[in-house]
Amino acid sequence: MTHDRIPATVRQTYGAGDLALAASFAGGFINFGDWQGIDTTSPTPEDRVHSQEQLYRRVLRALPAPAEQLRLAEVGCGRGLGAALAMREFRFAAVTGVDIHPDQVERARAVNAKALATFPDRLAFTLGAADELPFADGSLDGVYSVEAAQHFRELTGFAHEAARVLRPGGRLVVTTFFSSGPEVAERLSILLASFADGLDVAHPLKDFAADLAAAGFGNVTTESIGANVWPGLDRYLEDTVPPGHWARNFLTAWRSGLLDYHLVTADRD
Known about the structure:
Layout: H1 8-13, H2 45-61, E1 71-75, H3 81-90, E2 94-99, H4 102-111, H5 113-118, E3 123-127, E4 140-146, H6 156-165, E5 166-179, H7 185-191, H8 193-196, H9 205-215, E6 217-224, H10 230-238, H11 249-255, E7 259-268
Parallel strand pairs: 1-2, 1-4, 2-3, 4-5
Antiparallel strand pairs: 5-7, 6-7
Helix pairs in contact: 2-3, 6-9
């Protein structure tokens, strides 16, 4: 995997920029969080970490049981804290975190050294792209991705690669924010700098669902979880980013129907 495959904004944000160090992503999980049940009157950094852990748990609970028999890959694992949580709390047979950025793979191995030592044959981190996964055909029981797909340049290749590496009956679980349609891309770029500079891509949810069906997935489900994400996130951002910061516009974009946060599941036919 070469740096040429990594979009410039992604290379900077997750390389030298190391987004995990930003106050808005306390704890290093780098996701917007599932704030359900968390008191957001005056949210603390500990609450922020809890929200990010909860988002992972929501995704991992969507995988079939029994967990102990599942061989999984996380696509876009970042620092690998979610993959380590998956092993620690769910005791999957194996979890391999995959990331396109070599700096993130190195960080994942360093940050999770204890977990890697605890699960030496079951937890691993490796370089790979969403449309070029480093696994044999039909070798996995599950593939999941937590707030990474918005960085993928296109989702068709991801859908086909997930289908390739999953055994028949295997499950894909993806959570991130999707646009309501191609017609809102320009408005999102005006509201949100991450869309304007190319860090995020405005993938329409309906297009991704169609990609999954075309790739050989059935039982495709999409669930809006935005009510558990955007208000809590915005309340935390209120205390952690400067007044008028563009990130506060995620709540506006959601309320305006331009985007939403979804949990997507699909089973390999």
